[in-house]
UniProtKB/TrEMBL annotation:
Record HAMAP family: 16SrRNA_methyltr_I
Originating organism: Peptoniphilus ovalis
GO terms for MF: methyltransferase activity
Role summary: Catalyzes the 2'-O-methylation of the ribose of cytidine 1402 (C1402) in 16S rRNA.
Primary location: cytoplasm
Reactions catalysed according to its record: cytidine(1402) in 16S rRNA + S-adenosyl-L-methionine = 2'-O-methylcytidine(1402) in 16S rRNA + S-adenosyl-L-homocysteine + H(+)
Protein name: Ribosomal RNA small subunit methyltransferase I
Record GO biological process: methylation
Transmembrane segments: none
Family in the record: Belongs to the methyltransferase superfamily. RsmI family.
Cytoplasm in keyword set: yes
Entry EC no(s): 2.1.1.198
C-alpha cells in the first residue's frame, strides 16, 4: 500500500497516532527533504529507509515508485499534506491512471488552521496557494479573483509578503485580511486588519505566511443584454446563452430570460 502522510507544520506533537503507526510499519518513506524528515522520525523513534521525492525529481520518482512491488510506502513532505503546494499530485494522478490503490491520511494543514484563526467567513472559501513571483503576473491573478465573494487563502514567502500586499491593495481595494506565520511554532503570530493598516505597521518577515482575505462584498451590476450578446456571438443559441450567463455570473435565470426577450 502507498500512504500519503501529513506531517506537523511546526509543533512535532501535531501528528496523528495513525500516521506514526504507518511510518513505523512501511518499508520505505519517500520524503521531500530527508534532512527535515529524519528529525521527525528520530523524535518518534521510527527506523525507516528514506528516499527523496521532491519537486525536481517528482515525475521520475513517481514512475520509480510505481515499479516497486510488494512493499508498503509512505509519502511525506517537509510539513503538512502531500500534494497541497507540495510534491504528491503527480504521483496521485499516476496511481489513479494505473488503477493502483492508495490511501491519504488526515492531518495538519496550515491553510485551514489560518482560516479559522482569521475570524473571516468559513462557510465558503477558496484555497489559492502561491501566486506568481513577479508583480505583473501576481496582479493578473488578483484581477481574476477580485470579484469572488468568498474568503480567499494564499501562501507567501516572507521576503515577498509586502510586495504581495501592495499588489493586493491595488487590485482588491482595502479589504479585511488576516496574516498568520509560524503556525504552531513558538513564535506563532496572527495579524488582523485592513490591508492598508497592516502595510503601515511592522511585519516580521520570518517564517512561511498564510494570508486570508475577505471576499468581495460589493454588489456587482451586470449589463445582462451585453453578456447575452457576447455568448450569442460565440455561437450559442439564445436559450443556451441564457443558461450560460445565469450560471457564469450567478444570476437568476428568470431575470436573464426577461432580458433576452428584448434582443
Amino acid at each position: 500500500m502507498i500512504y500519503f502522510c501529513p506531517t506537523p507544520i511546526g509543533n512535532l506533537g501535531d501528528i496523528t497516532l495513525r500516521t506514526i503507526e504507518i511510518l513505523k510499519s512501511v518499508d520505505i518513506v519517500f520524503a521531500e527533504d530527508t534532512r527535515v524528515t529524519i528529525k521527525l522520525l528520530n523524535h518518534y523513534d521510527i527506523k525507516a529507509k528514506l528516499e527523496t521525492y521532491h519537486k525536481f525529481n517528482e515525475s521520475y520518482m513517481s514512475d520509480k515508485i510505481l515499479e516497486i512491488k510488494d512493499k508498503d510506502i509512505a509519502i511525506v513532505t517537509d510539513a503538512g499534506m502531500p500534494g497541497i503546494s507540495d510534491p504528491g499530485e503527480v504521483l496521485v494522478k499516476k496511481l489513479i491512471e494505473e488503477n493502483i490503490e492508495f490511501r491519504v491520511l488526515p492531518g495538519a494543514n496550515a491553510a485551514l488552521t489560518a482560516l479559522v484563526l482569521s475570524g473571516l467567513d468559513t462557510e465558503h472559501f477558496t484555497f489559492y496557494g502561491f501566486t506568481g513571483n513577479k508583480s505583473s503576473s501576481r496582479k493578473k491573478e488578483f484581477e481574476s479573483l477580485k470579484d469572488l465573494k468568498f474568503t480567499l487563502i494564499f501562501y507567501e514567502s516572507p521576503h515577498r509578503v509586502r510586495d504581495f500586499l501592495e499588489d493586493m491593495l491595488e487590485v482588491f481595494g482595502d479589504r479585511k485580511i488576516s496574516i498568520s506565520r509560524e503556525i504552531t511554532k513558538v513564535f506563532e503570530e496572527t495579524i488582523r486588519g485592513n490591508i492598508s493598516e497592516i502595510l503601515e505597521g511592522e511585519i516580521t518577515e520570518k517564517g512561511e505566511f498564510v494570508i486570508v482575505v475577505s471576499g468581495n462584498d460589493e454588489e456587482l451590476i451586470y449589463d445582462i443584454k451585453a453578456l447575452l450578446i457576447e455568448e450569442i456571438e460565440k455561437g450559442l443559441t439564445k436559450s443556451k446563452a441564457v443558461k450560460e450567463v445565469s450560471k457564469k455570473y450567478g444570476l437568476s435565470k428568470n431575470e436573464v430570460y426577461k432580458e433576452s426577450l428584448e434582443l
